[in-house]
Write a structure and sequence with these properties.
Elements (H helix, E strand, L loop, with lengths): L6 E5 L16 E5 L1 H14 L3 E16 L7 E9 L2 E9 L1 H12 L3 E10 L4 E12 L1 H4 L1
Parallel strand pairs: 5-7
Antiparallel strand pairs: 1-2, 3-4, 3-6, 4-5, 6-7
Amino acid sequence: MLIDEDVALGMSTGRARRSACRCHVSHLSTVFEGRHVEGLEKATGYYKGDYSLPERRLTGYITKLNRPKYETAGTITIDSTFGDVERKVQVELTGDDYHLAVVAHDNSKMVRVEGDVHIKSKSAQLLNPKNFGVIDIEDLL
């Protein structure tokens, strides 16, 4: 029985492979107090591939542009790297920044943008984008 904001976590498994071990677990149950739930939710999201990285700076090349007809804002996709993992990150940009992104894409220029990265198992999106700009070769030297 759950009381207030406590959470019950259960796990049931069948027989383990004989080569791994000779054991049988029929049922395992643990109750966590409400004060631990937030940390558990974050850990669960991370291991499921659904988590956020706050205040990150992305750099990379634009691989896709998408803007509805007659709109000034649009979504770009940037190839960027987090640690050792390459990700295609979607970024929604407003009018002037989107136009700058189109020019950068047309000229094969690298771009940068800052914000909070929301990563899911098969996608990534930059939330609250700011400081979008084109990286000139002189900036890299």
